[in-house]
Every structure is written in C-alpha cells, then in structure tokens.
Amino acid sequence: MSELSGRDVISIVDFSRSELDLIMEEAEKLKGKRTDDLKGKIMATAFFEPSTRTRLSFQTAMLRLGGSVIGFSSEEGTSIEKGESFSDTIRMLDNYSDIIVVRHRLEGAAKLAAELADAPVINAGDGSKNHPTQTMLDLFTIKETFGHIDGLNVGVLGDLRFGRAASSFILGVSKYNVKLFLISPPELKARRDVIAYLKDNNIKFSEVERLEDVISELDVIYVTRVQKERFADPAEYEKVRGSYRITARMLASARKEAIVMHPLPRVDEIDISVDSTPHAAYFRQAANGVPVRMALLKLILGG
Ligand code: NCD
C-alpha cells in the first residue's frame, strides 16, 4: 500500500517533498500508459464551478486506469437547483463512488466534503487559495523540463490575490529551494496569508510590479488570468483588466531556456505570438494533468 493510500487532497501545503516526489515519479511511469490498476473503482466529479482541463483530465486519468466516472459539471441539472445542500449532495456521492473530486467557488468546500465523506476527497480548486492537483502538475512540468526544481528562479505573474492556481503554486514551489518573484499590479498582490507562510518558512521572495524588471533573471514565468468572476466590484476589475500581457517580443530579453507556464484558460495575458516560441510550456503543462492525476488516483486508491 502506498503512503498516500486513502488520503484526502485538500491543500498543497499538506504534502511533503517526498510525497510530491513520489507522485511525480509515478506520473513519469504512467505517462502515455493505459492500465487496469483501478478496474472496478468509481470516481465522482462534483464540479460546482466551470472547468475544462481539470475535470476532463481527471476523467481521462480514471478511464486510463481502467476505472469509471460519474458526476456533474455544474449545479444545473442537479437537485441543488431544487434547494438540496452541498452537504447532502456530497453524502450521496459518497454512497455511489470510491473517490470524490470537488470544485467549488467557496474556500473550505473541499475540506467540508472530506469531513462528510468516508471516501477520499480531492480538491479540484476551491475559492481563491487552493488547487493542489494543479500545483502537482505544474511542479511535474518544471521537473520534466529542467530535471530539478531546486535552484531555479521562479516568477509568478498576474492575479496573485484571487487566483487559486497562483496561490497554490506559490505555496507548493516554495517547498523547493527556489528564488521567488511575485509580480503583479498593486491591486492584485499576493494574499496576506500566503505572504505570512513564505515569511514563516524563510522563503526568499520579492514583490515586483513589472515583469520587464526581472524577466532576464527568470527560469520559470508562471502567468495567470485576472479572476474576473471573483471581483465583488466590476469597476475594480475594469481597473486591472489588461494590465499585463506577455508577448514574444518581451521574451527576447528572457533566458534562452526560460519557460512560460499558465494553468489556463488564458484570456489576453499571453499573446498568441508566444505559442510558437520554444518558451511556451502551457500546452504540455495542461497535458501533464493526465499522468499526474493518474498517479494521484492510483496512489490513493490502488493496491
Ligand atoms: C484555474 C482555476 O480554475 O483555478 N484553471 C485550471 O484549473 N487550470 C485557473 C483559472 O481559472 O484562471
């Protein structure tokens, strides 16, 4: 049995480096494979918020391990529309499946689901802070590219305030010996609790406003979308909309081997001119969602 057997996956901070290494090693072995490891097992996807990559790569991962999938991709069409609670919905899925993958707009939803369900629960993104499996595939992509994570200069650009992929990535990558650059307009600076975590753990980081000022130092440029749906005030969104945009021209001053990452979806923060440069890593990053989620499902449910 793996040390991750039966584990809930709520936040990246709950995972040790050796556990992350185990997941990444397993993902490397499973990449491109089809197995029968989870034959007879059922995964439920409870997605209360939109998703393309996360939900479909979880489904693909389960199918490639020989398992089956049930679930919903929005509240529409479920009894939530009749007024059923989140808790009752999760209790039902717990009866029908061996593992539950939850996405929700509210922070803490996955933790609550894990308390309610006997089956392991995986957080597929809740609120503005946690998206642990996204971070696992991000780390895997970096390791696959450079052969290591320690020693790299990592810039995280964009909506560090509301972006859960960004916050989770900052927390996860800081388990490695990296130099962090948090790059954002003042309105979108990293959350106070994320900054406190970095300080408490003696992580080297600096906060800057413009990518241009640090681009030549970076090995990894992790770009994120302004999280329009999380602004309470549309005028506040309008103020920061389009405030940063990375283009192929800007990358002329980047290191030759630097990679541009993005959890996707992108809106306009990475110009399509970047796609055809050797720096663009975001599509293979998204593809890595499958082997990494296969590894996680296998380590939690297998054996
Ligand atoms: C992200 C999310 O939902 O947090 N998408 C993803 O899972 N790849 C990022 C985003 O929506 O900007």
UniProtKB/TrEMBL annotation:
Key words, A-Z: Pyrimidine biosynthesis, Transferase
Q: What class of enzyme is it?
A: transferase
Summarize the subunit comment: Heterooligomer of catalytic and regulatory chains.
Q: Spell out the Pfam families in the cross-references.
A: OTCace, OTCace_N
- Protein name, as recorded: Aspartate carbamoyltransferase
Which pathway, per its entry? Pyrimidine metabolism; UMP biosynthesis via de novo pathway; (S)-dihydroorotate from bicarbonate: step 2/3
The family assignment reads:
Belongs to the aspartate/ornithine carbamoyltransferase superfamily. ATCase family.
As its record notes, the protein acts as a catalyst of: carbamoyl phosphate + L-aspartate = N-carbamoyl-L-aspartate + phosphate + H(+)
Task: Output the InterPro entries linked to this UniProt entry.
Answer: Asp/Orn_carbamoyltranf_P-bd (IPR006132), Asp/Orn_carbamoylTrfase (IPR006130), Asp/Orn_carbamoylTrfase_sf (IPR036901), Asp_carbamoyltransf (IPR002082), Asp_carbamoyltransf_Asp/Orn-bd (IPR006131)
Q: Which GO terms describe its biological process?
A: 'de novo' pyrimidine nucleobase biosynthetic process; 'de novo' UMP biosynthetic process; amino acid metabolic process
Role this protein plays = Catalyzes the condensation of carbamoyl phosphate and aspartate to form carbamoyl aspartate and inorganic phosphate, the committed step in the de novo pyrimidine nucleotide biosynthesis pathway.
**HAMAP family the record matches:** Asp_carb_tr
Name the species this protein comes from.
Candidatus Methanodesulfokora washburnensis
Q: Name one GO molecular function term.
A: aspartate carbamoyltransferase activity
Q: Where does carbamoyl phosphate bind?
A: R53, T54, R103, H131, Q134, L264, P265
Q: Which residues form the Aspartate/ornithine carbamoyltransferase Asp/Orn-binding domain?
A: 150-299
Q: Which residues form the Aspartate/ornithine carbamoyltransferase carbamoyl-P binding domain?
A: 7-144
Name the EC number(s): 2.1.3.2
Binding-site residues, L-aspartate: K82, R164, R225
Q: Which NCBIfam families does the entry link to?
A: asp_carb_tr, PRK00856.1
